[in-house]
Amino acid sequence: MIQANGLTLHRIRTPKGQLLHTIADISLTAKSHIPSDSFVIAYLDYKVLIGRCSNGSFAFCQNALLDPKYVQRIRIFNKNEELLLWRTGSGVKGRYRVDGNGDETDVVDAEQVLFGTNSRDLGNGFTRLFEKRGTELVLPFSELEVTETSRVTLKTRNYVDFNKAHQASYWDCRCIGFSHNGKELR
Question: What's the chain's average pLDDT?
């Protein structure tokens, strides 16, 4: 394992990924692929919702509803797997990725710093992260205290491949989880 600039390079086993065609029901697809407790990030036409998913049921702050007609992209993930769904002109398609078997692949794990230098607990297991300039995110964690030097990160895994000229590039990326002060958030 090599660590540099906050990035960690290592090898894991993973298949190339299972492509899913024509998703009719987002909840049913989530339930059939990732029934265990996971996180969900839903990129809607008008905002981003971050919450939890368990057995195909989504839980967002203030019981916000996930209306499929506004979903541009949705990621349901935990540290071992991710279901990525996206809207196309002909409906919803997706990709399911699970690590642990398949071919050995180089990966780079990274932590993306999220907006939010202030926090306020909203109750019911959610915390609002915000900045003075107006940017805010609501995360599915209780009593999360952030400052300018103590931020929340989104952990991602980037899959490396080499082309015919032996140039490395990322061929896929997935979310793994969230962390704060180097500790995994659950």
Answer: 90
Residue scoring higher pLDDT (25 or 160) = 160
What are 67's two structure tokens?
A: 């209306």
What sign does the CA torsion over 17, 23, 26, 27 have? negative
Q: What is the residue type of 51? A: G
| Contact (Cβ atoms closer than 8 angstroms) between residue 21 and residue 95 | no
Q: Which helix (H) or strand (E) holds 32?
A: helix 26-33
Pairing of strands 91-98, 18-20: antiparallel
Query: Which H or E element spans position 121?
Result: strand 118-123
pLDDT tens for 83-112 read 999 998 878 888 999 998 888 999 999 999
Q: What are phi and psi of 98, to 5 degrees?
A: -130, 135
Three-class secondary structure of residue 69 per DSSP: helix
Cα separation, 69 vs 87, in Å, equals 9
- Spatial CA neighbour of 83 closest among 40, 116, 140, 115: 40
- Which of helix, strand or coil describes residue 59? strand
